[in-house]
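Input.
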Amino acid sequence: MFKRTLEKTLRKAAGQFPVVTVTGPRQSGKTTLVKTVFGNYEYVSLELPDQRRFALDDARGFLAQFKGPVILDEAQRAPELFSYIQVLVDERPGEKGRFILTGSQNFLLLQSVSQSLAGRCAVLHLLPFSLAELSRREPLSFETFDPAPHEAAAFPAPASLSLEDVLYSGFYPRIHDQKLSPGDWLPNYYQTYLERDVRNVLNVGDIEAFGTFVRLCAGRSGQLLSLSGLASDAGISHATARRWLSVLEASFIVALLRPHHANFGKRLIKSPKLYFLDSGLLCYLLRIGSPRDLDHRAERGAVFESFVVSEIMKNFLHRGIQPPLSFWRDSAGHEVDVIIEIGRRRIPIEAKSGRTVASDFLDPLLYWRKISGNHQPGSEPSILVYGGDRSFTRNGISVLPWFAF
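Output.
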């Protein structure tokens, strides 16, 4: 069993709040995590029709059956419960960790939390495995990152997995726990997502048009988002494209990276960039048929960049921190893939899928150093993550292998 980075934060939150909510995509490991951490709690899944009906018909009676703390799985399926939970926790405000809630529809769950449990509930997010979790090590600390040279041995790669294997397989726990074929599991996962979440829960009427929309989004992963162009290509209205994109965000399929606000003399691009949060699902949607295919596909760079952005997001989310991420791009086309802001510290990161470091790989970071005022190498960390396996420093830039995050 793989230890989840979020476990420490989850235990801490349960010692501080009467209610803790763990949200994330389906099959990201939420139920396994909360059952592991709170093994002595009662457990009920509101996916079960009889339990859901009990909760909807008689919320007081449903909650009264629990004599101690309880895990309510897929709690968004019975939103009426939240008002009753509020009353119960207000009656005994000193009791911490009384209710552990999980859910897969982020916007439905958080809407209920914000309406009834504001100030009483900690909200945590669990994405699929991170590479650090698969490698059974602590994640890289950006807060204490030292730009001095690093040894590649400090970043052990997952046993017997190549970069192409990792990108193609993705990180959903069941693939790795049960050693399932990504080519078999991911299509079923995606179809279940369309049927259960999109059609039945999120009320998207035309499921075929939505499927086309998702694949068009996959083709734009790592690119600036043009909602108008996306809507036109999908044959839908701008308003529908915006709503469907919010569905993908709410169900943790995609994330939008906002542009960095600092203007260093040139007009900045204001559109966000679109990223898929699991490289395996992205490969499936792009119809990449095997790990070997990645070597010959033009989308390899976009898949790798999406992988890097997702790993950085997991690094923060799995420690209970909202990811302080953005990207920087000006109207002349200069761009840095990711900017991490921690206090006054800004860490620029470039992602390149090549196995060797070409000289132009460093150009975006050198340009950033020049225009941002960090003229001295090492004054602030700069990171190039690439598809190779060595770790070294060049021109004051930390070059890290793909498995460092």
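The mean pLDDT is 88.
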